[in-house]
Design brief:
By secondary structure, the protein is mainly alpha-helical. Helix content is 51%, strand content 2%. The chain has 22 helices and two strands. A hairpin with a 7-residue loop joins strand 1 and strand 2. Helix 6 runs parallel beside helix 12, helix 8 crosses helix 9 and helix 8 packs across helix 12. The protein is globular, with a radius of gyration of 24 Å. About 1% of the residues have low confidence.
Length: 514
């Protein structure tokens, strides 16, 4: 049985939370192996696996920020990290950077604050660490990074159907593909009860590397010993990660999923194919991460296929405008209905109706467009939701006054000018914004001293613009702004994303957070 640690503490002194010691040890080991080479973590790593050291090690924010960058390289500009002479304020800045960068890659950090991480609250730390690790492990399990996944198509199945599958389902299919090729009669349906006997794992490893991974573990009748023998083979191909023999025999689904994901990323064992998939655009990824940061369920892996039943869109309306959704009008489980497509269409029609109530521009958009995965029209609804969310926050902080783009532009210019800086912008399409200087000045105007101007590039050149854009994004997150814009959005002057950047900094200036 898994060992669960219960501790007191949380929002109230009466609350209690629990966490799995096995998961803590597995995540700690992964951190040690992944970040052990980092000079900035020399005094922290390796972290002991079997005590509570992990929760103290994350207190200054540096380790968690490094883990985010390991999972999704380039997410944050490490130049903005506070690394020396750390006090409570500088640690809080690092944790703000961590939380807002985690949001930007799709982590759900609702009800989590910098102080929670500084105090090392175990259930929050482990919850965040797992989300970061999972996103990193899953980020490459798709047709763009692995076109050879095309081989997992079943007879008569379309590529679109494969694209709809979440990563955990793709991994199940991958395991079963190799089991079938081995002539093995067993098929697994989960990473819990179906893998407890290590049989599927032993056969899978043998398929991936028959020279180093033989089938001898199957001769062992004791399941714990068999799991250990199997993991010894996994170690030979550098894939002994996340699970102990006990995690296998008890069927810890979370850790076994991580084990298989890492195994796939290390040696997929699929022959190449001639197939060129359509890659997710930057804009699509940004909106998808925004939705996931709000805790929608299911997790959105594909912006269009995962929105077709209307459920996620309706959840977003509930999140950004509490009270607007009439739950009685929602078909929360359309696939269980006699006419699933009809119920999904009803949901999509209701989502468009909600957009009309909020005065979105939905002329020419019908529920059928969402149901069919129309890219342009789906993107339009999602962007308007994101924009409405930001403007509603600003409206509340501003005492109920309606906020227009012109108000945000005027406010930003006044902030920068009042701070004695010379940059300015005409609008969100102003070509001069591409060098990042105005946005950097805005961050420093809102939080004097937040910017280290020795790190800011002067003069022209795409490389300089990119460095400044990266710095602007991370500096804004560090002062508490939730920034989903990417550096490329700044250098290419994508007006919609620049608007969200400036509005998010305005939220911080007005004393709010998202």
């Amino acid at each position: 049985m898994a060992q669960v640690h219960v501790y007191q503490g949380g929002a109230t002194t009466a609350s209690s939370h629990s966490f799995s010691d096995e998961e803590k040890a597995a995540f700690t080991d992964y951190i040690n192996n992944s970040l052990g080479h980092d000079a900035d973590l020399k005094g922290k790593l390796p972290i002991p696996l079997h005590d509570l050291s992990l929760f103290a090690a994350v207190n200054d924010g540096i380790l968690l920020c490094k883990l985010i960058n390991f999972a999704v390289p380039g997410t944050l500009d490490e130049r903005v990290l506070n690394k020396k002479a750390l006090n409570a304020f500088k640690m809080a800045e690092n944790q703000n950077l961590c939380i807002n960068s985690a949001k930007a890659i799709g982590c759900n950090v609702i009800n989590m604050g910098a102080q929670d991480l500084i105090e090392g609250k175990p259930h929050l730390v482990l919850g965040l660490v797992w989300q970061i690790i999972r996103i990193g492990l899953f980020s490459k399990i798709n047709l763009v990074n692995h076109p050879e996944l095309y081989r997992l198509l079943e007879p008569g199945e379309t590529v679109d159907a494969l694209l709809k599958l979440p990563p955990d389902q793709i991994l199940l299919r991958w395991v079963n593909y190799h089991l079938k090729n081995a002539g093995h009669p067993k098929k697994i349906n989960n990473f819990a009860g179906d893998i407890k006997d290590s049989e599927a794992y032993t056969v899978l490893l043998n398929q991936l590397n028959p020279q180093k991974c033989d089938l001898k573990p199957l001769a062992e009748s004791d399941l714990s010993k068999r799991a250990d023998l199997m993991l010894q083979r996994a170690d030979k191909i550098d894939c002994r990660k996340f699970v102990s023999p006990k995690d296998i025999t008890t069927g810890n689904a979370k850790l076994n999923l991580a084990f298989v994901a890492n195994l796939f990323n290390t040696c997929p064992g699929l022959a190449p194919v001639e197939y060129t998939p359509v890659e997710e655009t930057r804009e699509e990824k940004t909106f998808r991460n925004w939705m996931n940061s709000l805790g929608v369920d299911p997790f959105v892996n594909n912006l269009y296929t995962d929105l077709r039943d209307g459920i996620v869109l309706i959840q977003l309306f509930k999140a950004v405008c509490p009270g607007i959704v009439d739950d009685k009008r929602v078909n929360w489980h359309p696939d269980k209905a006699l006419s699933p497509q009809m119920k999904k269409l009803e949901n999509c029609n209701y989502a468009v109706e909600l957009g009309k109530q909020l005065k979105f521009s939905v002329v020419g958009i019908g529920g059928s467009d969402i149901l069919e995965g129309n890219k342009t029209l789906t993107l339009s609804v999602v962007y308007q939701l994101m924009r409405f969310h930001l403007l509603l926050i600003l409206e509340k902080l501003g005492g109920g006054k309606k906020i227009q783009d012109a108000d945000i532009i005027q406010w930003a210019n006044q902030q920068v000018s009042s701070a004695g800086k010379s940059t300015s912008m005409k609008d969100f399409k102003d070509a001069s914004l591409k060098n990042g200087l105005f946005l950097i000045d805005l961050v420093d105007a809102v939080r004097p001293g937040a910017v280290d101007y020795s790190l800011v590039e002067k003069g022209d050149g795409e490389d300089k613009y990119t460095l400044n854009a990266k710095y602007a994004v991370s500096a804004a997150r560090k002062i508490g702004a939730t920034i989903f814009a990417l550096p490329e959005d700044i250098t290419e002057v994508k007006n919609k994303m620049i608007m969200t950047f400036v509005a998010s900094v305005m939220v911080v200036a007005l004393g709010g957070n998202h």
